[in-house]
């Protein structure tokens, strides 16, 4: 499982799944460009403590080469300049692109329909979670086409096109799935693999903060949300990505929507605490029926 001499971009690697995926690619030896808006000198509007420099340091500690670059992926000019930098520094090589730009949690107004939800927030969510992915792919894909190889991963939430409880949230996450399928068709002649990948109930830094717990006592979060018991750390999706990126037969998944729990059955990896969470089974057994009743 080595990614020595491989070059990756994880767009949106400041924290959560993006950070963990960057670290796991580094663990396999990759050079990883970690992008986001939060730096030690300039925090993003999210106003959190995590930074891209911290992520890059973790990539280095894991055995890779982390390169932090501040990029607002909703800006065509910034993304174009960033991809040109990668092209120049890596002599045109790009092997892995992970589109994980999100930032939609503070924009989502749960319980409000399309006519009640803030239009400004809803459209901003599409700009960040859909538009930014399109812009990044537009400028990055030509590097992969030139080399006739590559892996593109669209990070989403869920494996189906079922409604996700909010008009704008659903639109964004289902769009990510369709983008992966569309690129799989568009780029099939270039031996480029395009997939969508979802975590289960992600136990991210922000979620831990929301429930007032830490990774050490995370089970206490079930007092706030009982389904938190089935959550997984960001490193579970990191493991999923690492196994995909090192799989010589990854193209068999081209155009598919994959999950951490499904891939854990394929590859046999576990979460950082040695567990093997299966959100799919848990959701079908304990969550789906109650949501349909509502």
TrEMBL record:
Pfam family, one: adh_short
Alphabetized SUPFAM superfamilies for the sequence: NAD(P)-binding Rossmann-fold domains
Origin superkingdom: Bacteria
Name under which the protein is recorded: Short-chain dehydrogenase
Lineage summary: Bacteria, Bacillati, Bacillota, Bacilli, Bacillales
């Amino acid at each position: 499982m080595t990614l020595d001499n491989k070059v990756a971009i994880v767009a949106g690697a400041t924290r959560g799944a993006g950070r963990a995926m960057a670290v796991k690619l580094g663990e396999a030896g990759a050079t990883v460009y970690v992008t986001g808006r939060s730096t030690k000198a300039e925090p993003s509007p999210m106003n959190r403590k995590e930074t891209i420099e911290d992520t890059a340091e973790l990539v280095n500690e894991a055995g890779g080469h982390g390169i932090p670059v501040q990029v607002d992926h909703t800006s065509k000019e910034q993304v174009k300049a960033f991809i040109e930098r990668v092209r120049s520094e890596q002599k045109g090589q790009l092997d892995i692109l992970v589109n994980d730009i999100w930032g939609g949690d503070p924009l989502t107004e749960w319980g409000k329909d399309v006519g009640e939800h803030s239009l400004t927030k809803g459209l901003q969510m599409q700009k960040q979670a859909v538009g930014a992915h399109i812009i990044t792919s537009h400028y990055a894909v030509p590097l992969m086409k030139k080399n006739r190889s590559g892996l593109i991963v669209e990070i989403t939430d869920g494996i189906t096109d079922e409604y996700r409880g909010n008009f704008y949230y659903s639109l964004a996450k289902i769009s990510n799935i369709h983008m992966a399928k569309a690129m799989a068709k568009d780029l099939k002649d270039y031996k480029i693999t395009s997939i969508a990948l979802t975590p289960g109930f992600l136990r991210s830094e922000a979620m831990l903060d929301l429930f007032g717990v830490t990774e050490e006592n995370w089970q206490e979060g079930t007092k706030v949300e009982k389904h938190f018991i089935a959550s997984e750390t960001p490193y579970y999706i990191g493991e999923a990505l690492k196994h995909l990126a090192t799989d010589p037969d990854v193209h068999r998944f081209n155009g598919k929507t994959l999950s951490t729990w499904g891939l854990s059955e394929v590859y046999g990896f576990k979460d950082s605490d040695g567990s093997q969470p299966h959100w799919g089974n848990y959701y079908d057994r304990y969550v789906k029926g109650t949501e349909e009743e509502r």
